[in-house]
Design a protein that fits this description.
Elements lengths: L32 E6 L16 E2 L2 E2 H8 L6 E4 L10 E3 L8 H9 L6 E6 L7 H14 L10 E5 L5 E9 H15 L8 H4 L4 E5 L10 H11 L5 H13 L7 H14 L4 H15 L4 H20 L3 H8 L6
Parallel strand pairs: 1-4, 1-6, 4-5, 7-9
Antiparallel strand pairs: 2-3, 6-8, 7-8
Keywords: Cytoplasm, GTP-binding, Magnesium, Metal-binding, Molybdenum cofactor biosynthesis, Nucleotide-binding, Nucleotidyltransferase, Transferase
GO molecular function: nucleotidyltransferase activity
Pfam families: DUF6457, NTP_transf_3
Length: 326
């Protein structure tokens, strides 16, 4: 299931940085955040290919990133609108192709939360857990009125290379430094990201997997190979299927696998896919949800074991035994 963007995207306003709306100032471990995803690069190292649309594990790179920041109050993608797996807001730097700082400023105009997660659209292994890890230090320290509080948290890879587009920031700090850079240079167009990050007080977290980005076809090949490894392929496949079918359901896949194993071993091999299908159908009839799936799975698994018990020698002799007269 994909979301089709509006045919006439909102046009960006003046290219000068905006102070933005007043943030809500909410704090705590569940304080709201917004997300800005930069997806409008030229992808020169991929020969100009539409990189956000390249599929890894059956899902577009952009959709994988959008899934990781699904808890954002507002998600803004800075790029030309396209079909996505979930609705987002669209923004564009003026002029298009003006570079990451101009794109970030365009996205920030649509945000209101105290905290903003800034991401590139080429992160195949980013997940919701990593986004929460980035936000946690900012949420714990509260609003940025304390001089000791960091302005943001970013990931580094195994070699210590910083990833400013896999990061969480205080929105106010971003707007402040973007305005200062625009005042100094006349515009943000063409300025590198390091001009922003060197002006901020940042905390760094090392994560060689979540920080992996796809700049080349070799990177794409490596990402595709990794998700097909034994330890990842099943979760990746289930996520891709749910995404394709528009299913937002978190179920115990371990219980379903146990059921499929029991049905295949205790009954017959074709019983496994048919039984799991019937479990899904029964769960839907019962209103859906993880509890309904779990209950149907337990019933079917118990039935498979009872079925197997009837095929044991003791069960056969018991079936022909005379009733107890005493």
């Amino acid at each position: 299931m994909t979301y089709e963007p509006p045919s006439t995207p909102e046009q960006p306003g003046t290219p000068q940085p905006s102070t933005g709306p007043e943030p809500s100032g909410s704090t705590g471990p569940d304080a709201p955040f917004d997300a800005v995803v930069l997806a409008g690069g030229a992808a020169r190292r991929l020969g100009g290919t539409d990189k956000p649309g390249v599929r890894v594990g059956g899902r577009a790179l952009l959709d994988r990133v959008l899934a990781a920041c699904a808890d954002a109050a507002t998600t803004v993608v800075v790029a030309e609108p396209r079909a996505t797996a979930r609705p987002v807001e669209w923004a564009r730097e003026d002029p298009p192709g003006g570079g990451p700082l101009a794109a970030l400023d365009a996205g920030l105009r649509h945000t209101t939360a105290e905290y903003v997660v800034v991401l590139s659209a080429d992160l195949p292994f980013l997940d919701e857990g990593t986004v929460r890890r980035l936000l946690a230090p900012l949420r714990e320290s509260g609003p940025g009125d304390d001089s000791a509080a960091a302005d943001g948290v970013l990931l580094t890879d195994s070699g210590g290379r910083e990833q400013p587009l896999v990061a969480a920031y205080r929105a106010g700090a971003l707007r402040r430094e973007l305005a200062a850079l625009a005042a100094e240079h006349g515009a943000l167009t063409g300025l590198p990201l390091r001009r922003l990050t060197t002006a901020l007080d940042l905390t760094r977290i090392s994560d060689s997997v979540a920080s992996f980005d796809c700049d080349t076809w070799d990177d794409i090949a490596a990402a595709r190979a990794r998700i097909r490894e034994h330890g990842h392929v099943l979760d990746e496949w289930i996520t891709a299927v749910k995404n394709e079918l528009g299913i937002d359901l978190d179920v115990d896949t371990g219980a379903l696998l146990d059921l499929a194993r029991d049905a295949a071993h205790e009954v017959a091999r074709p019983a496994a896919p048919l039984t799991t299908f019937l479990v899904g159908y029964a769960a839907a009839q019962a209103g859906g949800g993880p509890d309904a799936v779990a209950q149907a799975s337990r019933k079917a698994a118990a039935l498979a074991l009872r079925w197997a018990d009837e095929d044991t020698p003791d069960a056969k002799s018991d079936a022909h035994a005379k009733p107890d007269a005493g």
